[in-house]
Amino acid sequence: MTLCSVFNCNERSEKQSSSGVHFHVFPCHSKSPTRFRSWVNYCKRKNFNPGYSVRICSKHFKSEDYNQSDLLRQQLIPNIKVKVKLNTNAVPTVPQNIPCSTSNSSNLSEREKRKRKKEKKKLYLL
Ligand SMILES: [Zn+2]
C-alpha cells in the first residue's frame, strides 16, 4: 500500500492509480539536495527523514509540474493508462488545505464578515 507523506493528507492507494491519484518518489538526496529539501519541507513533518519507499501524491503538484507530452497523451488516449512523469525539477507547490483546524475556521468567518459588510454597503447604496 502506498501512503502520501504530506502532513494531513490521507491519500493512499491499495492498487496503483486506482483513484486517478499518482504517487511520486522523493528526488534523490545526493543528486538534487535542494529539491529534496523542498519536498521534505513541504511535508511539514517533524524529524522527517524520507526513505526509499516514501512518496507524495499527485494532489500536491500543479499540471505544469508534469511532463507535458505525457499529459497530452493521457488526454488524447484516455483508455490507455499513461504514467505521467514529473518534470525533473518539479517541487510540490499546491497549498495544503488543512481540515478541522482553528485557523481555517477563523479564516472562513473573516470572509463571512467581509461578505456581510459588502452586502450592507450595497443596501446603503440602494
Ligand atoms: Zn497527498
UniProtKB/TrEMBL annotation:
Protein name: THAP-type domain-containing protein
Source organism of the structure: Macrosiphum euphorbiae (potato aphid)
Lineage of producing organism: Eukaryota, Metazoa, Ecdysozoa, Arthropoda, Hexapoda
Molecular function terms from GO: sequence-specific DNA binding; zinc ion binding
Region (Disordered): 95-126
Biased composition (Basic residues): 113-126
Domain THAP-type: from-to ranges: 1-95
Keywords of the record: DNA-binding, Metal-binding, Zinc, Zinc-finger
Domain of life: Eukaryota
InterPro entries according to UniProt: THAP1/10, THAP_Znf, THAP_Znf_sf
Biased composition annotated in UniProt, kind: Polar residues: 95-108
